[in-house]
């Protein structure tokens, strides 16, 4: 039975059978590397805006948005119109790197949105269809332009799944990549957080570059995410980003901003670097710029354009449908001030979600920027450790603006509780993502078109899911106290 027929005229039992059959065949035939399908056992058959309908007839609010790809949600009218326009025009659908009116319109709109100081002196390279391909191109570009080979990257980073991108990500090690501390408040590597933690992270980087015995030669470039997404939704402090821009510029190190997930209004500015006012030398762009279709580019300063013809190529860099969809998406976000709306809604969501930290010890932290939000789950039964008071001002080891109170480490991450929240959300018709260093962060990436009413529904369902998990954990802990494991009894 066809899926369309079962949904339209079949019984709920028929629909469920179709749903289960597809999932069973996926499990039998697809790679063990699949990820989202394991935590989200749904079979989407229709979608519009924030809403997905599964083959079993259930409806879901989608706050995964194709891992941030769907800036306008599913099947937005302006995107569908742009795609139909290309299909109806008879234009070629794949053109390698040839010039076309569709490509010209995309580049024009893209350059219109770029940070000041870059658009007037920029070049664009169309890469393969995925963000990781663009990261590879960016790394290759700065190595060719500088004649150097090393790359500076940050702990917790995620830049893709190809070899070079993985080397620059936080989960891999490569002697060509020097790993730097990424500032964060909740799990600050220096146990301090705030401006002092960010200052220490900047000093670490500066010392590494200026110390001839650091073991890190002058690098070809520095790559960073203005907000770490897969790393746990960690926004970089604006002052720290400006510091990275200054120290790289002073040392002639190209700065690469990975805006694959943060771009096109996601964080409350069109590009996340706009918050700090910096202009990177290279920007890596994908996901939302294709309007839900595969597209990836790098945009960079023209003086870095030292490539010879054919130095970086790819068969599927001429996707006309993606360029048309991308042009429509970029223009719609810009013309309708959706980045500003993302900032407003994001502030509201963060404020309401932060209330969860006051009611549930398992909610350790709520953070984010715009409509890129993370809720970190922690073990409520563990006691945070306490460090000593930072050295007083004037001490040889003092740092500026040292915290006056003893600093505390957060409770241990609780990936099992985060997974439980994700499951409870799914049962309530809400799709969320997990991320973070320990996969303990529940992530929200709703489309920029989410309505006020839908925002309320998302917050209500998420709060209900957290409540259910917290109560279950509390009840389970009480049960364990009343009925301890016999193997652990003494006497």
From TrEMBL:
Pathway: Amine and polyamine biosynthesis; ectoine biosynthesis; L-ectoine from L-aspartate 4-semialdehyde: step 1/3. Residues 382-410, 470-491 are annotated as: Disordered. Keywords: Aminotransferase, Pyridoxal phosphate, Transferase. It holds the Pfam family Aminotran_3. The keyword NADP does not apply. Residues 394-406 have a biased composition (Low complexity). InterPro entries: Aminotrans_3, Aminotrans_3_PPA_site, Dat, PyrdxlP-dep_Trfase, PyrdxlP-dep_Trfase_major, PyrdxlP-dep_Trfase_small. Its cofactor is pyridoxal 5'-phosphate. Residues 470-481 have a biased composition (Basic residues). Residues 482-491 have a biased composition (Basic and acidic residues). Its EC number is 2.6.1.76. It comes from the Bacteria. This is Diaminobutyrate--2-oxoglutarate transaminase. The lineage of its organism: Bacteria, Bacillati, Actinomycetota, Actinomycetes, Kitasatosporales. The gene is dat.
């Amino acid at each position: 039975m066809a899926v369309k027929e079962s949904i339209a005229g079949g019984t709920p039992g028929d629909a469920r059978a179709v749903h289960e059959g597809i999932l069973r065949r996926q499990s039998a035939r697809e790679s063990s590397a699949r990820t989202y399908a394991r935590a989200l056992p749904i079979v989407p058959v229709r979608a519009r805006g924030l809403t997905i309908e599964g083959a079993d007839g259930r409806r879901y609010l989608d706050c995964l948005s194709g891992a941030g790809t769907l800036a306008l949600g599913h099947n937005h009218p302006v995107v569908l119109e742009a795609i139909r326009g290309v299909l109806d025009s008879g234009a070629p659908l794949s053109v390698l790197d040839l010039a076309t009116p569709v490509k010209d319109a995309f580049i024009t709109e893209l350059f219109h949105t770029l940070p000041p100081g870059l658009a007037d002196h920029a070049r664009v390279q169309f890469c393969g269809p995925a963000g990781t391909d663009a990261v590879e191109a960016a790394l290759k570009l700065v190595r060719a332009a500088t004649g150097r080979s090393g790359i500076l990257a940050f702990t917790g980073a995620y830049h893709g799944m190809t070899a070079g991108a993985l080397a620059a990500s936080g989960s891999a090690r490569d002697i060509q990549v020097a790993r730097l501390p990424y500032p964060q408040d909740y799990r600050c590597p220096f146990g301090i957080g705030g401006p002092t933690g960010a200052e220490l992270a900047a000093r670490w980087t500066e010392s590494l570059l200026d110390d001839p015995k650091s073991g890190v030669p002058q690098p070809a470039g520095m790559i960073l995410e203005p907000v770490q997404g897969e790393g746990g939704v960690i926004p970089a402090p604006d002052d720290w980003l400006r510091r990275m821009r200054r120290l790289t510029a002073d040392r002639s190190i190209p700065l690469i901003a990975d805006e694959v997930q943060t771009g096109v209004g996601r964080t409350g500015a069109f590009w996340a670097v706009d918050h700090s006012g910096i202009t990177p030398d290279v920007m890596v762009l994908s996901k939302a710029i294709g309007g839900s279709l595969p597209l990836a580019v790098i945009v960079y300063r023209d003086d870095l354009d030292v490539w010879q013809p054919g130095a970086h190529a790819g068969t599927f860099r001429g996707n006309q449908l993606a360029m048309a969809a991308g042009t429509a998406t970029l223009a719609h976000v810009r013309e309708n001030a959706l980045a500003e709306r993302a900032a407003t809604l994001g502030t509201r969501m963060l404020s309401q979600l932060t209330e969860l930290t006051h009611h549930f010890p398992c909610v350790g932290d709520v953070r984010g920027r715009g409509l890129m939000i993370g809720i970190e789950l922690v073990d409520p039964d563990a006691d945070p450790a306490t460090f000593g008071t930072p050295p007083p001002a004037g001490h040889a080891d003092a740092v500026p603006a040292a915290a006056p109170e003893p600093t505390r480490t957060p409770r241990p991450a609780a990936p099992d509780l985060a997974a439980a929240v994700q499951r409870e959300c799914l049962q309530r018709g809400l799709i969320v993502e997990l991320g973070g260093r320990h996969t303990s962060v529940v992530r929200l990436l709703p489309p920029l078109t989410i309505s006020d009413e839908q925002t309320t529904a998302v917050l209500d369902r998420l709060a209900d899911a957290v409540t259910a998990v917290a109560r279950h954990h509390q009840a389970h802990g009480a049960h364990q106290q009343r009925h301890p494991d016999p193997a652990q009894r003494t006497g």
